[in-house]
Amino acid sequence: MRGKLVLLFVLVFLATSCIIVSLPVKAEARTIIVPDDYSVIQEALDNAGAGDTIYVKKGVYCENLIIHTALSLIGEERDNTIIDGRMSDFGSVITITADGVTVAGFTIRNAVDLSASGITLCPGICCCNISGNMITGNSNGIHLISASNNNITGNRVNSNSGVGIMLHGSAPSTLGSHHNNIQGNEILFNSIEGIVLRLNCSYNNITGNNIGYSMREGILLSWAGNNIIIENDLTNCGVGVGDAGYGNTFLHNNFINNIQDSYTSWLDEATGKVVFSGGNWTENNMSECHGEDENSDGIKREPNLPDEENTETFGLMAPSDSSSGSTKSPELASPSAEPSTESQPEIAKPFPTVPVAAVATIAIVVILTGLLVYKKKHKRKAEHL
Fold this sequence. Notes:
The protein is globular and about 100 Å long. The model is unreliable at 19-23 and 297-357 (pLDDT under 50). The protein has helices spanning 2-21, 41-46, 353-384, and strands at residues 31-34, 53-56, 59-62, 65-67, 72-75, 81-84, 94-96, 102-104, 107-109, 117-121, 129-131, 134-136, 140-145, 151-153, 156-158, 163-168, 177-178, 181-183, 186-188, 193-198, 201-202, 205-207, 210-212, 217-225, 228-230, 233-235, 239-246, 249-251, 254-256, 260-263, 265-268, 273-276, 280-282, 299-301, 314-316. It has an 11-stranded parallel β-sheet with strand order 1-2-5-8-11-14-18-22-25-28-33. Strands 4-7-10-13-16-20-24-27-30 form a 9-stranded parallel β-sheet. Helix 1 runs antiparallel to helix 3 (353-384). The longest helix has 32 residues, at 353-384. It folds into 3 domains: 1-21 and 352-385, no CATH class; 38-160, no CATH class; 162-178 and 189-340. The chain is an alpha/beta fold.
């Protein structure tokens, strides 16, 4: 009988040990250094795990990168850590195909294929941070293709032959670029446009950017609605803002020396009618604005047109003091009125290691207690006999 009890105890111990040993253990995030650990950046990317940091020392790296893991790619020094697309037809210099990627501290140049960009975020990608980079000499600077909830901040996106920063959706699909934050970037000398939101791009925040010297629009909103455009400087563009969207808000923007500060209507080719955007323009500093200051309140308004679809647009004659902080920026609107953003994959919850270990320990105690009780009863029964 004693041998059976020992065997039972051993079996319980082994089973519990298997449970505890099989619990997943989260690997420690690593820092991989290029070129110390790997000579090229792509090789480091291919051998990195989620949460790792790839630190790239100063130098020129002639590569076209694909980032397929949630990690941080950090350059030692922006102006001297250069990723060069080699002026070839290999596509974008950096293509991001994973959520949760950070790219910071690089000069990214020479993606010259017409469809290529310095950085491209692929459809459905979210939660990435692109910050503190110099993106220059590409066809387009940064391109988000139906990508949402990303931060594009503090970059210098200059001297690209197409568009500085482009957000693209698709129609009539609900897949679009929504809830992105484009803030504090310098976007100068891009040949065609500075920032473009085109087709199903909604609830994006465009704040505090310095945009200038583009042949066409500094900011173009084409079939893009309910976006917030606040405290941007738009200088020396063909048109400061082209609002061919719906329900966009413009607050405290400065329009300086543009050929035309803005337009808020476009021709609907399907109906042949002029359509007005109906945006909300509040306290913008317009260098040229048609109409009269009829109420002597410092605002001159566009004259109303007889078309019932026309909505009032206006600009502030005196420059607004955006540094005073007296006016609170409007909150992003709720997306309930617009097509819902694409559902993001649910992040798997970590395996509950502590509860399972606790349950296993309790199970051992209960089993051992039961064995002891059983042994005592068996002993008493033997003595009674």
